[in-house]
Amino acid sequence: MRLRLLKILVFAISGFLIFKSINFGISKNIANCWSNQFTINKGDTLTIYANPIKPQKKSFLVIYDIHDRAVDSVYIDLSARIPQSYDEWIKGQNFSGKVNYKCNLAPGVYHLEKHFSFCVRNPEADIEIILPHLFQLCSSNTTGASFFSPLTNKKSKLNLINSKSNIPFVINYSKTSFKIADLQYLYNFLEINLPNKKIGFISDMDLTKMNPSKTYIFYGNYSFMEVNTAIAIKDFVFKGGKLIIASSSIMNNKVRINRNLKLISFYGLSGKDPIVDSINSAIRFNDSLSSLKNYQLIGMDYMFADKPQTGFFKYCNSNDSFFVKGSYFNGIPLLNDCLADLKLTKFDKIKIYAKASCTYKLKKGFGTIGILYNGKGKIIQLPTEEWFCAQNLNNSAIKNLTLELFETAVK
Q1: Do 259 and 363 share a domain, yes or no?
Q2: CA distance 220 to 176
Q3: What is the residue-level pLDDT of the chain in tens, covering all 411 positions?
Q4: What's the CA gap between 266 and 223, in Å, rounded?
Q5: Confidence (pTM)
Q6: Total number of domains constituting the chain
Q7: In terms of residue numbers, what domain contains 102?
Q8: CA distance 11 to 5
Q9: 10 Å Cβ neighbour count for 125?
Q10: Are residues 61 and 188 in the same domain?
């Protein structure tokens, strides 16, 4: 009897120590970590790279799900000291240790110690949420420079992000373009209100083909986009596909990606890129040389909400209004009131449900909520990535309008 009690006590203490190490151990010791893939299938192997705050030979690295719950962990040797330098964007990032992790997690989105997120794809998904990893790469200053940093802009208008070692593109999680909390609200909203639909995730870095039988949701900041992704979107809508775009900034800057060299190129202005081909030039989408215009591809462009009242939206068929929490807003170009500029967008039909109650200095940059039709294809446009935050979805007007638009998208 005593031996049995002793075994139970030892088992309980061991379980407590393991639980404590998973939830509270290495989480305080990870300086940064990445993986070599953004989207995987269940059963695939990830190579995980990490640096510690303090060198430690045998440590847990914890994997969390969309609800921030620890779902798995892996041992990794972080005993090697790796000197870090500010010019890693040229020389490549160094890491203390790496480990191969065979992923048997259920389909969903996960993150490594809040430093790197990845998707396990659901092959049966009816709806796929696209995560904006490319914007994170372009805006991250982890490796010493980004397309927004003074260092890069000061050196040259030829903006390059380069990581020449055999590790992945570097992402600074603190510069993430989507919020895990808001992603939870979107995911829960879909599960509750569309219970018969299966939900999946994919990174925009892996979005080169889109299945017309699925509905895709662009959620976050997609101001940087690869040419192949833009073309995939155009083909998808033309073939009758349905998109939901919840973003204040999408398809502004066209970039080239060389995955072998870990290189992202963006030049911004026409005439700066030595590759003058109008499709492959890494310039702004609405540049005079670009044959891929964002208005023609997605029918919208971003606006800057510099005043709080720009968050007030007015229905087009009534005098009622509602407030939308958001820092930036996207918009369909308008001719006047709620009448869309079809000639500019090249879409067959546009129905606008509501628009921001005050104008913007660009005149065509109203914040709008609507549906763009191209044959049987549809784009449901929501004005901001903050649309799915708790404050907005707790508003009955926003919730009901979202349900109406989603039913249009998935039917």
Answers
A1: yes
A2: 9
A3: 555 555 555 455 444 444 444 443 345 677 777 787 889 999 999 988 888 888 888 778 899 998 888 999 998 888 887 665 545 545 555 677 889 999 999 999 998 887 788 999 999 999 999 998 888 777 765 544 566 654 444 333 333 444 434 444 444 444 444 566 678 889 999 999 999 999 999 999 899 889 988 999 999 889 889 988 999 999 999 999 999 999 888 998 888 887 766 677 887 777 778 888 888 888 888 888 888 888 889 998 765 444 444 578 889 888 888 999 887 788 888 887 788 889 888 899 999 999 886 544 434 446 889 999 998 899 999 998 889 988 999 999 999 999 999 988 877
A4: 12
A5: 0.84
A6: 2
A7: 18-109
A8: 10
A9: 19
A10: no
Tally the residues of the chain.
Answer: 411
Q: Which residue type sits at 142?
A: T
Domain shared by 87 and 157, yes or no: no
Neighbours of 289 (CB within 10 A): 15
Q: Same domain for 375 and 340?
A: yes
Name residues whose C-beta falls within 8 Å of residue 282's C-beta, 6 or more positions apart in sequence.
Answer: 254, 255, 256, 265, 266, 267, 273, 275
H runs (alpha helix) in 260-357: 294-297, 342-345
